[in-house]
Amino acid sequence: EKLELTVQSLAFHPELIEAMKGSLCHDFETGLPAAEVWEMYRGLRISQVVPQLLPDIFKKAELVEGDGGVGTVLHLTFSHGVAPLEYQKEKFIKIDHENYVKEAIIVEGGLLDHGFLKYLMRIEIIGQSDKTSTIRSTIEYEVDDEKTGNTSFVSTSALACLAEAITEYIKAQKSA
């Protein structure tokens, strides 16, 4: 019996998908307490300030559905210099207020349009002491074996810029 590979058959037989998996991680020392940093990342507040803080990367961030909790979907439009990406919709799949962990996956656009099967972004705010913390940004991805050349698009640079910009924003708000 010949097995025809269709989107439907792959949904029932994920082991048939040939994919390359990988991950990248970036740590940024904040000089701020973990709880203060988490207040920015925990819900929608970060999406409201990102286009102002990083206009060269993010043109706008719009709420598609949700209230900032698990299941929330954001539509991010990238600035023209972020080729080949135009936009992406990302969905919050985990928000752990106790351990300061937030995960989102791309559900439309972004690198999914370039052969990626999965693209997950994890932010962890790790308390180092009462006075300082680290923002750990992790990307986990799977890309179709025929598109492995596109793994060069995977980078933590936007998340690293975001960590630095959010840290500076919080410090500026505290001193205002």
Could you characterize the architecture of this molecule?
- Residues 19-155 form the Bet v I/Major latex protein domain.
- One of its GO terms (molecular function) is abscisic acid binding.
- It is found in: Nucleus.
- InterPro entries: Bet_v_I/MLP, Bet_v_I_allergen, Plant_def-hormone_signal, START-like_dom_sf.
- The chain has a seven-stranded antiparallel sheet with strand order 1-7-6-5-4-3-2.
- It has four helices and seven strands; from the N terminus they run H-E-H-H-E-E-E-E-E-E-H.
- A hairpin with a 6-residue loop joins strand 5 (101-109) and strand 6 (116-127).
- The protein is α+β, with helices and mostly antiparallel strands.
- It is globular, with a radius of gyration of 18 Å.
Tell me the number of helical segments per DSSP (H or I, 4 or more residues long).
4
- Tally of distinct domains: 1
Write out the CATH superfamily name: START domain
Estimate what percentage of residues fall within beta strands.
35-45%
Please write the string of helix (H) and strand (E) elements. Answer: HEHHEEEEEEH
Q: Spans with pLDDT under 50 lasting ≥5 residues? A: none
Report strand order across the widest sheet. Answer: 1-7-6-5-4-3-2
Helix content: 10-25%
Structural class: alpha+beta
- Number of E strands: 7
What is the distance, rounded to the nearest whole angstrom, between the alpha carbons of the first and last residues?
71 Å
Per CATH, what is the topology? Alpha-D-Glucose-1,6-Bisphosphate, Chain A, domain 4
* Assigned CATH class: Alpha Beta
**Main pleated-sheet profile:** 7 strands, antiparallel
| CATH architecture descriptor text | 2-Layer Sandwich
**Assembly of the depicted chains:** single chain
Shape, principal axes of CA atoms: globular
GO biological process, one term: defense response
Family: Belongs to the BetVI family.
GO cellular component, one term: nucleus
Pfam families: Bet_v_1 (PF00407)
